[in-house]
Amino acid sequence: MFLQKIKILVEYNQLVRILIWFKRLRFNMSLQLSGCSAPHKEDPQYMHVVIGAVIVIVLVFVLQDFLNDATLLSLIVFNMIFLFLTFPLRGPLWCKIVWLMLGNAVGVLFGIIRLSFSFALRNDFQGINFFLNLIIDFLWIVPIWSLALSFLGMMKHRKNGVENPK
User: Fold this and answer.
1) How far apart are CA 58 and CA 52, in angstroms?
2) Calpha distance 146→163 (Å, rounded)
3) What is the pLDDT of residue 46?
């Protein structure tokens, strides 16, 4: 009985060593593929976040009189996502502000589209109208945010002088 327990512990220890070896191998391969010799962590740019927060507050106060509640709420969600996930990244501040303004303009346009859907569907299809609102918000928030991230990455490569070999 005692020997069986020792045998199980030895097998478990060997399994743990193999798993650790695979983790190290995978980590080293990811470093080699990315061209880095060590992991890199960017320092957040807090001043960009503060400037972005001021811009977002001004935009919300200016637009609250002109937009309905659903559109204003979707713009606030987009601005918060953009503010906390894009503004801390390295990149030019002007680029982040331009994409924030572009995202708000697209949000207002999609708010108008959503308002036309709600007028067309009226009281007959309130459940469908609710889900259409969520889908329409998803259709503009995610692509604008991802395009902004792609553009920031392109600006970073352009600044470093790295060009695409294609």
Assistant:
1) 10
2) 21
3) 84
- CB neighbour list of residue 72: distance below 8 Å, 6 or more residues apart: 60, 63, 64
Residue type at 153? G
Structure tokens, 19: 């798993």
- The total of other beta-carbon atoms located within 10 Å of residue 110's CB is 20
Question: For 114-148, how does the pLDDT look when each residue is reduced to its tens digit (9 = 90+)?
Answer: 788 777 777 666 677 777 777 778 888 888 888 88
**Ramachandran angles phi, psi of 122, nearest 5°:** 50, -140
Give the separation between CA 154 and CA 97, rounded to whole angstroms.
Answer: 16
For the chain, first and last CA: distance in Å?
A: 65
Kindly compute the dihedral angle of the four CA atoms of residues 135, 69, 126, 133, in this order, to the nearest 10 degrees.
Answer: -10
User: Nearest 10 degrees: CA dihedral of 138, 139, 142, 148?
Assistant: -150
Q: Where are the domains of the chain?
A: 1-40, 46-160
Distance of CA 3 to the CA centre of its chain: 54
Q: Is the pLDDT of residue 49 over 70?
A: yes
